[in-house]
Amino acid sequence: xxxxxxxxxxxxxxxxxxxxxxxxxxxxxxxxxxxxxxxxxxxxxxxxxxxxxxxxxxxxxxxxxxxxxxxxxxxxxxxxxxxxxxxxxxxxxxxxxxxxxxxxxxxxxxxxxxxxxxxxxxxxxxxxxxxxxxxxxxxxxxxxxxxxxxxxxxxxxxxxxxxxxxxxxxxxxxxxxxxxxxxxxxxxxxxxxxxxxxxxxxxxxxxxxxxxxxxxxxxxxxxxxxxxxxxxxxxxxxxxxxxxxxxxxxxxxxxxxxxxxxxxxxxxxxxxxxxxxxxxxxxxxxxxxxxxxxxxxxxxxxxxxxxxxxxxxxxxxxxxxxxxxxxxxxxxxxxxxxxxxxxxxxxxxxxxxxxxxxxxxxxxxxxxxxxxxxxxxxxxxxxxxxxxxxxxxxxxxxxxxxxxxxxx
Length: 408
Ligand SMILES: Cc1ncc(COP(=O)(O)O)c(C=O)c1O
What we know:
By secondary structure, the protein is of the alpha/beta class. The strands form two sheets. The protein has a seven-stranded mixed β-sheet with strand order 1-7-6-5-4-2-3, with helices on both faces. Strands 8-9-11-10 form a four-stranded antiparallel β-sheet, covered by helices on one side. The protein has two domains: about 260 residues, Aspartate Aminotransferase, domain 2 (3-Layer(aba) Sandwich), CATH 3.40.640; about 130 residues, Aspartate Aminotransferase, domain 1 (Alpha-Beta Complex), CATH 3.90.1150.10. The mean pLDDT is about 95. The longest helix has 20 residues. Helix 5 links the parallel strand 2 and strand 3. The two termini are about 20 Å apart. Bound molecules: pyridoxal-5'-phosphate (PLP). The site of pyridoxal-5'-phosphate (PLP) has 14 residues, from helix 4. Pyridoxal-5'-phosphate (PLP) binds next to helix 4.
């Protein structure tokens, strides 16, 4: 395998320094002030009050930093993780919910009401789309999908799609199936001019790769289930907010819907966060090594990975991102189902599983063609998504090479 090359060569020094600062920060965030270096797991529903005054005040406490009132709203363990996540994102605060998809739902419902119009990126996570076309539609919110590359390479900008009642533009960059990069600063600038809110699913990049709030995004959605928790043992979602007013909106929406997060899962996610830097570094490096090697294989038509200089989204990636992760797409020349089954069922290390971002390598077929409406993915072939884990890249390459050999 050839070396991946360092895509970040020539990137200005301050960005490197910031990455280094974040990496060190991961060891400090969410710690108790003294004593043990980790918060304890506080499981609980009931919080008792000593006086009637205290009880009365509990109805008006500051839900973000005030005294605890009820387990669903907050516990010390969740507050430790939420504080750490907010700090990584440069946000005013974070809200935790039970899954990444729940976080997508809360972001949408926080900003949208009956009669409103939503602009959702066409390359979004599939269940986000199902939510828009199903539940949101039933509640009177209209969704239009837009090309992830809106405003790029001569395409008209996002403002051409605004309607009188457009209230939110939702982004995901890169998309976790087809990996198109979005011009986030251009989109947020256009939205700000019209007072339209913006949200982004930043699961792929994590706060180490991209900090959307610095680029004007109002709410950042994280499926903490993936890289942040990192060990495939947690379902958890997080939202970070650019301002306190936005945090209130998000928190009250989550409360209205009865969302909370398990303190055990929050604790596991904070534990995962400690090693996020080293895991991402390893997964990014191994992923790029494999991506480069896959480009040399005759079965491969194209590798979809924005950190590769050949990728159509690379200029934006290089401009805005500090890191990639280990998840990318591989478009094979069309293969028959039987051959694909031989390839995938015979893998020794790569297993088929829906998630990504864990310690274990995964590979699954993807079918973006059936879903897209604004910018259909028209390239022919068989698309696979690979999530590179922490195994040695040479072992992973051997597994993939044998798998590709089984196609013929
Ligand atoms: C981009 C993206 N966002 C959100 C989610 C949802 O996360 P969760 O599985 O925690 O609900 C996923 C899950 O695969 C995802 O890929």
